[in-house]
């Protein structure tokens, strides 16, 4: 039963609603609409620490812009969503973009057989609406019939390239060169399209800002702050829905996916405060709620017949939501056990209430070291700077201080 309830937590992480990010979503939609109406190029940088809804907000903004284009009877944007973490080499980004943006005749050539240089030329042609190698060649129409045929064609769809997890391409000189070539497409004469970079830091945005402004492109920078305790409380209540009850358990509302399961509001407020003080990561908050739910189900199952088997499943479930790498991932685990327990009668299950005690125990198990979490979410340059400080202080005879020149020397050695 713990696995069935944890499956509901997994579904909550896939919720497509965007809350507490209306301002950021409006900024992205405004740039997309402006580029579509004025038929020009645009650049958007979406930055923020992990778990603050960057990818979800961007995807929702694209869906909103698509619906707006249909209402205005305009061509819907043609989106190429690229997860940079899944790319083997930086040059692969051109093939992935080509498969999503090129016409049907070019999609077949956009597979593994096409060279990165050819894929890059075709993607650049898609942004410039000119054949590769003929950007500056203007061919006059042969007759009035050709003019009428060109005028009757529907306007091309605006290409939108989304580079999710853009930081993954900043690990070497080749990745930086590829990113510069990608964003340089927006500066070409007559370019029409939008490039959206989703990253954890503003490092590349600062690097490319001056070059884009020199070419007449003002990039839109959308910085998403970490969720506050109030934001996390609103998000958790929205995601858990009717599973949230009053502190005395008088609320009789039940979730259709998990009958008889409730979270008391003080427990969610405790989770929101602790996570907001540490990282502000919504995914971590849902992970804590899953661990608390697993503990509550285990406590109820221990008092029911057949508690030994329930305790074994509960141990596996808690290990998954607390991040034990030795256990299989949550989707694999609940699918494997759900196949064996298809005939479970949910009406016979006793009610489960997640209290403040369950949440406090889950917080202690999941968030053991908040300082290491804060270091992990820092940009790579700041992590290198901290490492340089530690190494220099360890080498110092006094062991208490170091000069700026010494720190710069150690930092330069680490960057090499």
Report on this structure:
- About 15% of the residues have low confidence.
- Helix 1 packs across helix 14, helix 11 runs parallel beside helix 15 and helix 17 packs across helix 18.
- The protein has about 425 residues and is of the alpha/beta class.
- The protein contains 18 helices and eight strands.
- It is globular and about 70 Å long.
- Strands 2-3-4-1-5 form a five-stranded parallel beta sheet, with helices on both faces.
Q: How would you concisely characterize the structure shown here?
A:
Helix content is 54%, strand content 10%. The chain has helices at 2-13, 22-38, 54-71, 92-101, 104-107, 116-128, 144-152, 173-184, 203-214, 229-240, 265-278, 282-302, 307-321, 330-340, 356-366, 370-376, 380-395, 404-415, and strands at residues 41-48, 78-83, 159-164, 193-199, 220-224, 244-245, 261-264, 352-354.
